[in-house]
Amino acid sequence: MDHKINDSTLKATLLAMGSALIITIILLIFSSNNPLQSIVFFFTGPFSNTYNFGNMLNKAGLLIFAGLGMSIAFRSGMFNLGGEGQVYAGATAAVLVSINVNFPNRYIGIISAVIIGIISGALIAGFSGWLKKQWNTDELISSFLLSGIIIHFTDYLISGPFKDNSSFLNSTVKIPTILFIKQFLDTSHFNISFFIAVIFTFLAFIFLFKTSMGYEIRLSGLNRKFAEYGGLPINRHLIIPMLISGGMYGAMGSFASMGSYHMGIKGFTQGFGWNGIAVALIAGNNPAFVIPAALIFAYLDAGTQVAMIHSDLSFEFGNLIKAVIFFLITAKKLNLKKEYLYD
Amino acid sequence: MISSVLFMSTPILLAAIGGLLTELAGVLNIALEGLMLIGAFSAILITKFTGSMFLGTLGASLAGMSLAYIFGFITLRFKANIFITGLAANLFAVGITNYLSSIIFGTKGVISLLNYSQLLHIAGNNIFTYIGLFITGLSLWIIYKTVFGLRIRASGFDISILKIKGIDSYNIQMKAILISGALSGLGGAVLALNIGAYVPNMIAGRGWIALVVIYLGRKHPVGILIASIFFAATEYISNIAQGFFQIPSDILLGFPYLITFIAMVIYSILNTRLNNGR
Fold it and tell me: What is the ipTM of this complex?
């Protein structure tokens, strides 16, 4: 089975993002006691102070990692549906390493923890790629199921053997203060991971468009049979894109835990994996557009968060907004009239 | 024991039979999980307000069909990518149940029926067990003995056959998607009405299990029935094992995913061997 994802058209992207915006505003109007104020908070909230602004940028940075990884996977025709588990595993692996290993200094400590997080994510996703290569196991379903296993196992680690019993939260103990990634803007979570994400964007662009492996990956994504007849080692291109997308989810997770939360909290990366897919699709699976796509998505996310804090709303918008984006963004024909038989 | 395993297999069986029709029609339906969730929520919502489990069950099917319609319309008419729209349907189901639950009941947690009566049993078996078996038989007849079934199979085999014959493929695939919505909604209703409550995450991967069951059952209703019973049996055994070994609840929640994953890998290994042998 082929899971080719065509690059989204500009029209569909605008429609998807516009609809997501309109639905958010409608939900705010219908469920807030003071709709006008909620809408104002929604639009201006992310810019209202350095704390909100810094958090939005930080979120965007994390989204860039996941968006880059998913773009490369989609370009290769592989579908990694296990981002949720890979982020969570990456985040938790980084925390567990930080808590349990005595590092000689903070740089070695932080870098090792992040790399362990990246490797955890990469191996989980890579396993699905390997199964596909070996026995043609559908990677879309296998990566999702594997993610389900990993999520519950990680839940168990955090609320079982590694639980901090002195805390009210279902969480691990904090990582040593020395291993915190330094935060720049006031008390916001904004840190160096944003700039690392920007550097990764350049690397991903060069990898995909300027190297022979990137060319081969794109070619196998466009037409796997053609690539095979052309003598390309297509089996390799089943595993490498999965390793990359899983690794980027791992990076997202480990930077989130080392830079923002400083511990493993049960379920704290929930939704991160779906966001990665959203960002890749908004960017048309092109690393060059991943930064603006991540910024737009982070703005939408931050806006709803600020609107929620300042109002009486108690539910999550996240899933509905993502649903609207996912419904429309890959649309190829946007006419409502029925056309059939010969199209 | 046999009757409880049969009953536990029913939600998966219903969703898988619906998924089989879309699969045969050439549409891989990863939205089953979300369709079941909408069904479970609607069943409790409607039963709570009307006091009738029958209306609740009917409403659950209709709710499943409605979401399936949105999913099908966008996928088929707008030519959108079916995996992304399927993902959208799953997230939409989580979001909308969460939203409605918050504004109607003021909670994001468990919603239980106050005066809840046990589901009807006939000759020791749950009424839904019979419904599940009846629908499996019915699907056998529809797929292999009717014109509609033939067209569904043709649509999955090579959609251009329908075009050459002048048959509207949109119509055929859409009907398959709507039926899968109704059956998955029904499956969700069975889960919720059995315990008289809606619990977030209560589907717990059963929609995905149903998807794997379609393959394990070799895309045939009888095979699907056997595969569903297999998964229900492992669920039954793990429930019993829980009593003996005090397995942590998080591990227990991950168990269905593990079994499904292993079953899927074994299936693909055997499948590769078979194909290589030919």
Answer: 0.89
- Residues of B within 8 A of A81 (CB-CB) are 83, 87
**Based on the number of CB atoms within 10 Å of its own CB, is A340 exposed (0-12), middle (13-18) or buried (19 or more)?**
middle
Cβ distance A151 to B30 less than 8 Å, yes or no, reads: no
Q: Are B82 and B28 in contact (CB under 8 A)?
A: yes
Residue pointed to by tokens 């519950």: A152
Write the Ramachandran bin of B172: left for phi over 0, alpha for psi from -120 to 50, otherwise beta. alpha
Question: How many residue contacts between A and B have a Cβ separation below 8 Å?
Answer: 160
Which of A256, A188, A201 has its CA nearest to residue A65? Answer: A201
Q: For residues A224 and A202, what is the distance between their CA atoms, to the nearest angstrom? A: 26
Question: In whole angstroms, what is the distance from residue B275 CA to residue A48 CA?
Answer: 62
Render pLDDT for A232-287 as a digit per residue (tens, 0 to 9): 777 778 899 999 999 999 999 999 999 888 888 888 888 888 999 989 988 888 99
Find, among A269, A270, A275, the residue nearest to A256 by Cα: A269
B254 → closest Cβ in A148, A274, A324: A148
Q: Determine contact: A300 vs chain B, CB below 8 A.
A: no
B38 contacts B44 by C-beta, under 8 angstroms: no
- d(C-alpha B45, C-alpha B41), whole Å: 6
CATH number of B209's domain: 1.10.3470.10
- Cβ of residue B237 closer than 8 Å to a chain A Cβ: no
| pLDDT, tens only, A105-160 | 888 989 999 999 999 999 999 999 999 998 988 888 999 999 999 999 999 999 88
Does A140 contact chain B (CB < 8 Å)? yes
> CA B45 to CA B197: how far, in whole Å?
9
Please name the residue that has the structure tokens 């992304």: B84
Hey, where are the domains in chain A?
58-289
Exposed, middle or buried, B12 (CB in 10 Å: 0-12/13-18/19+)? buried
Contact list, B269 vs chain A (CB under 8 Å): 135
Beta-carbon count within 10 A of B102 CB: 16
How far CA A336 is from CA of A225, A342, B73, B74, B79, in Å, comes to: 34, 16, 10, 10, 11
Both structure tokens of A13:
């992207």
In the block, tokens 């991160």 appear at A272
Task: Give chain B's domain count.
Answer: 1
Identify the segments of chain B with pLDDT beneath 50.
none
Put simply, the chain B residues between 111 and 140 with a CB less than 8 A from any chain A CB are none
Q: Which residues lie below 8 Å from residue B211, measured CB to CB, with a gap of 6+?
A: A141, B16, B19, B29, B30, B32
One-letter amino acid for residue B214 of the chain = I
Best residue in B23, B71, B75, B77 to probe A by mutation, most A CBs within 10 Å?
Answer: B77
